[in-house]
Amino acid sequence: MTAPALVALAHGSRDPRSATTITALVDEVRAMRPDLRVEQAFLELSRPTFGKVVDKLVRAGYDEIVVVPLLLTEAYHATVDVPRAVAEVVERHPQLKVRVTSVLGLEPCFLEVLDVRMREALKRARVRELDALVLAAAGSSDALANQSVARMARLWGSHHKLPVTAAFASAAPPAAGEAVRAFRAEGRRHIAVASLFLAPGFLPDRAAELALEAGAVAVSEPLGAHPEVARTVLARYAVGAVELVPV
Asked: Diameter of the chain by CA atoms?
C-alpha cells in the first residue's frame, strides 16, 4: 500500500529567500525519508500553490495526503487559511482523504536550532559576551500564540541563565527594538536577538533592523532548513498518516 503523500504547506512570501529556504527544508525532509512522496506548497504569494500540488498528486494516483503546516504558532493562518485551502481541494476532489496535522509549533528541540543560529551570529559579529537575549517572533492578534513565544523565551533563558524577553514584529508589543532598549535601560550592554521565524522575509528583516538600531550586538538568522526542523515535519506526518488508517 502506498504511503500517504506529505505536503509541507508554508504561508508564502514576496521575498524569494523565503521560498528558497522552504525548498531547502523540504529537501532535508526528502533526504531523511526518500521512500515518501514529499511536496512543498504555499498558501499565497509563492508557488506552487496548494491546489496545484494537490491536483498533481491526484493525477499521480494518490488518494491520501497528509498536510503539515509549516507554521510556528496556532494563529490565524493555522486556524483559518489552512482549513479553507483544504476545504477547497476536498470539494474539487471528493474522493481524496486529507489529514491536516498540528503546526510545527515551538518544540523544545528548536532551542538547539536557536543556539546554532545564535552562535553563528555571534561569531560573525565577533561577540564573546552576552548579558541578555531577545526572542523575536512574528506576533499575532491571538494572545495564546504570543504566550507560546513567551514560554519559549522563558525556556531559552533558563537554559542559558540569562534574562530573555519575547518581542514581536507585528500585532503585539514589545517590538524587538523596544525590548533591546528596555534591557539597555537596566544597564545591560551585550544584548543579542534571536529570530524565531522559519524563513527570511520582511518581518524578520524589520525585527533585525529595529534591534540593531536600538543597540543589539548581534541578530541571528531564522531557523531555516535545520535537521531538527525536518525531523519535526516528519514527526507531524507520522501522526497524520496513522490517523488516516481505518479503525
From this structure: 63
197, 203 in Cβ contact below 8 A? yes
String of DSSP letters for 109-141: THHHHHHHHHHHHHHHHT----SEEEEEE---S
Q: Which residue has the cell 518544540?
A: 107
Residue 197 and residue 25: Cα distance in Å, rounded? 13
Alpha-carbon distances, residue 42 vs 37, 77, 159 (angstroms): 17, 11, 34
Alpha carbons 38 and 59: distance in angstroms, whole number: 15
Torsion of CA 211, 12, 235, 54, to 10 degrees: 180
DSSP string, 78-102: IIIIHHHHHHHHHHH-TT-EEEE--
| Closest residue by Cα to residue 148 from 78, 82, 100, 212 | 78
5: alpha, beta or left? (left if phi > 0; alpha if psi -120 to 50): beta
pLDDT digits (tens, 9 = 90+) for 48-76: 999 999 999 999 999 999 999 999 998 78
Residues 85-106: what's their mean pLDDT?
A: 96
